[in-house]
Amino acid sequence: MTSETHSTSAQDATPIGFQEHDHQACVETALATAEVRCNEAGLRLTPVRRKVLEMLVQEHRALGAYAILDRLRDEGFGSQPPVAYRALDFLVQHGFAHKIERLNAFVACAHPGAMHSPAFMICRNCDAVAEAQSAPVKGMLGAAARAAGFEIERMVVEAEGLCPDCTEKA
């Protein structure tokens, strides 16, 4: 499985995912960005939160809370589910991670710090996830919402299929 790259521009229409890249630089950049953003916002990036973010960035695929909890336990961070769920809640709330509803799992945000509406392409074979930008208020759904007097506050777009690696193997 190849992995995603990280970009800071929410305006970039190119999906972030499935490409070869300098993985070590990717992880270091994501963690450094999170530390800077937390410092600027007065947030605490605790060791558990940092470790969970690092796991998500290293994997470049959706991870469930219990898989994260198992890894945290192996690294000595505790074995109770609230340990993982609190860290994941923090990361999602502050834009460092996203919940993939279809898989009930989490991925690191490819555009941390940028206000955006992500759309996810999820490989049904290997759970690799690529993040793209969506514009819910500009499309047909946005037009329907405006016509109904409805204001879209949050929307999750998830498409399921095969990533390039799994397509080649099939």
Write down the domain tally.
Answer: 1
Residue-averaged pLDDT: 83
Broad shape: globular
| The CATH topology | Arc Repressor Mutant, subunit A
Q: What portion of the residues fall into strands of 2 or more residues?
A: 15-25%
Radius of gyration: 16 Å
End-to-end separation in angstroms reads: 13 Å
In what order do the strands lie side by side in the largest sheet?
4-3-5
Description:
The chain has 170 residues and is of the alpha+beta class. It has a single domain, classed as Winged helix-like DNA-binding domain superfamily/Winged helix DNA-binding domain (Arc Repressor Mutant, subunit A, Orthogonal Bundle). It has 6 helices and 5 strands; from the N terminus they run H-H-H-H-E-E-E-E-H-E-H. It has helices spanning 23-41, 47-59, 65-74, 81-93, 140-148, 164-169, and strands at 97-100, 105-108, 117-123, 129-134, 157-161. A 3-stranded mixed beta sheet has the order 4-3-5, with no helix packed on it. A hairpin with a 5-residue loop joins strand 3 (117-123) and strand 4 (129-134). The longest helix is centred in the first third of the chain and has 19 residues, at 23-41. The two termini are 13 Å apart. The model is unreliable at 1-14 (pLDDT under 50).
Quick summary of this structure?
The chain is an alpha+beta fold and 170 residues long. The protein has six helices and five strands.
